[in-house]
Structure formats: C-alpha cells, structure tokens
Specification:
This protein is an alpha/beta fold. It has 14 helices and five strands. The chain is 71% helix and 7% strand. Helix 11 packs antiparallel against helix 12 and helix 12 packs antiparallel against helix 13.
Length: 375
C-alpha cells in the first residue's frame, strides 16, 4: 500500500485561484501549491478555497511523514461555473494523471462542489477518501448574519440558495394575487384588492431574490452605468435606445388600456386584445433599438451593418404574421370579427417579408464569400 502512488487533489471549480491570485493551473507539487495558497490568502483571506488547499498540503505532509509515495495537485475550472468549468477541469485532470500516474486519489475541498467533482475524478481513478474542510468561526468575532452574507455573495451559492427561496415566494405571491384579482372581478369588492399587500410584497421580494441569484441586478446596474457613460460621451445610440424604451412603455400602456375595462375574463381574449394593441409599438421599439447601433457604427466606422437591413425586413414580416395570427384567433374565438381580406393581406405580407429576408441573407452571404475567394 505504501508503494502505491497517492495523489492529494483539490479542485477550485470557479477558478478563484486564477481570478483573484493570477494562478495558472494545473499545479503539481508541494512548492507550487504552497505558493498558490499564499497568493490567494493574500488576495482574499476569507476565501474557503484557501483553507481547502492548506488542508490538502497538511494531508500531503502527513502522508509524506508516514512514508507514503504521495503527490499533490491543484485543478481550477472557470468563473462561469458549469459545463465550461467542468470541461477545463477534465482536461487538467488528464494532464495531472498522465504526469503523476497515481493509483488512488484523496480529494480535499470545502464540500460545496463534491457532488460535481467526485464523479469526474472517480471515473478516471479510484478515490480513497474525501475530506471536507469547514472554517471554524468564533462567535465573538463573526455573527451568523455576516457568515450568511459572505456565503450568498458567491455567484454559485447565490443560485443554489437564493433562487429556490425566491421562486417559492414569487409563486406563493402570484397564486394569492391571482386569487384576489379573480375574486375582485367576481364580486367587485375592493377589499380583495386591498388585502393583496402581502401577496405583492412576496411576489416582488421573490422576483428580486431570483434576479439577484442569477446576477441580473448586477447586470442591470452595469447597463445603467454603461448607458451613463455613453450619454456623457455623446453616443447617438442612447437617443434611439430611449425612443425604443418609450415605445415599449407606449405599447404596454395601450395593451393594458385595451383590456382594462373588459368584462370578458377569458385569458385568450386578454392575450389577443393586449397583443393587437401593443404589437406594433413593440415592433418599432425593436427596430429603433437596432437602428441606434447601426447609426452609431456608421458615424464611427463609416460602415452600414447589412444584418440591420435583413433584421428590419424580418422583424416587419414577423409583426405582420403575428398580427394576422391574432386576428385569426380573435375571429375564430368570437372576440371580434376581422374581415378575411385583412387577415389574408397581413399573412401574405408577413410571408413575403420573411422570404425576402431569407433571400437577402443568402445573397449577402454568397456575395461576401465570392469576394473572399477572389481576394
């Protein structure tokens, strides 16, 4: 047993070592791992991966003192945790296994990613043991609230803990809110609306937790900051973006106004009525959004993006097709008769625009490929 090569392995799935400390993985050897632990410890002393690697180093030293043939290695994935990071870990694992050629592995980590990492490693080499490292907290130094706040600041843990909680709150709020709205329309008793305060709070809080869990709040703030920078720099695309947002608001208001006083509670009626009223402001909003990018590129680079022309034709065609489908539904379900000639016209125009967009795309691709061949 002592003659068999043992690999003490620690895996950083979200690549904190690379992002925070600039460590390039995979690392093999006690000196390289010790330097990596010190580097991340200096960059972020509170990161649990520091403790995981130090625990692996301690296990390596204990096995070495026991006369075992042992090596230590560190694998790092990618900050976009998922398929990409796991693919990187698999590639690095193959390199380490080819270099060290161990008969068994002892896996050391903080326990958060064991269910993802263990199958990857065990499919290639036997795992002798799995050691989970937990940081001891002194009650007088760190409160439970602080520990929870640090835990949910991690992107992966936010998805794991906040999204399910937010989803439950949002679903509960939505159920009770719909129940109250239905009861209000049935009885016209305003008490059912006034009693929905906690339903609305639950819905908003749940949506906020879900958005925060997926990082959408941070992205939204980045977009705002990006927009403010563009406004200060005189980027003309911002003007078109504001027009686009205004059109979206107009479309939403027209849609809500169209169904506000209706006495028909059929969901299909609400969808067709709202869609027919809001459709074209939404279509023009998309067109203005893309137009802003095209105008900005033309001012900066004196080039017109051909995809804008194709996209504009396709979006207009899609608008006519959706309008035709909504009118068909409205007539078929008895919500309001639309003359057949109008429906045929809308569907025909939509198909013509869609085919035209496809032809333009094909011709542009053929033209530019032939130019590349000639050059």
């Amino acid at each position: 047993m002592k003659n068999e090569k043992t690999l003490v392995l620690t895996v950083d799935r979200d690549n904190d070592f690379g992002v925070k400390a600039g460590v390039e993985s995979p690392l093999i050897g006690i000196d390289a791992c010790r330097e990596a632990a010190m580097a991340l410890g200096m960059a972020d002393p509170e990161d649990s991966d520091v403790n995981g690697l130090f625990a692996a180093i301690k296990m390596y030293n204990d096995l070495k003192d026991d006369g075992r043939s042992v090596e230590i290695a560190l694998l790092c994935g990618d900050e976009k945790v998922g398929h990409k990071s796991d693919s990187i870990i698999i590639d690095q694992l193959e390199i380490v296994l080819d270099t060290v050629k161990p008969q068994r592995v002892m896996l050391v980590g903080d326990g958060a990613e064991d269910e993802f990492i263990n199958p990857i490693v065990s499919s290639r080499v036997p795992i002798d043991s799995v050691k989970k490292v937990y940081v001891k907290q002194a009650p007088g130094l760190e409160s439970t609230l602080y520990v929870i706040a640090k835990m949910i600041s991690d992107p992966d843990k936010k998805k794991r803990f906040l999204v399910p909680i937010g989803g439950i709150l949002a679903i509960m709020g939505m159920i009770f809110l719909i129940e109250g709205i239905v009861a209000f329309y049935a009885t016209k008793n305003n008490e059912y609306i006034y009693g929905q305060t906690w339903s609305v709070v639950s819905l908003i809080l749940g949506l906020f937790l879900c958005l925060h869990g997926y990082g959408m709040i941070d992205r939204f703030m980045d977009y705002i900051e990006y927009g403010m920078k563009n406004i200060r720099s005189g980027n003309v695309a911002i003007t078109f973006a504001l027009i686009s947002i205004a059109l979206l608001c107009v479309g939403g208001i027209l849609g809500v106004y169209a169904v506000w006083d209706t006495q028909i509670m059929d969901p299909m009626y609400v969808i067709t009525k709202f869609g027919s009223s809001a459709l074209w402001p939404f279509i023009f909003a998309v067109m203005f959004w893309d137009m802003g990018k095209v105008v900005n590129n033309f001012i900066r680079m004196k080039k017109i993006n051909r995809s804008f022309m194709i996209g504009t034709v396709a979006v207009i065609g899609l608008g006519f097709l959706i309008q035709g489908i909504l009118d068909v539904l409205s007539s078929f379900l008895g919500f309001g008769a639309v003359e057949n000639i109008y429906i045929i016209f809308e569907l025909a125009i939509g198909i013509v625009f869609a085919v035209t967009a496809s032809i333009l795309q094909s011709n542009f691709s053929r033209y530019f490929n032939s130019r590349k061949d000639r050059s």
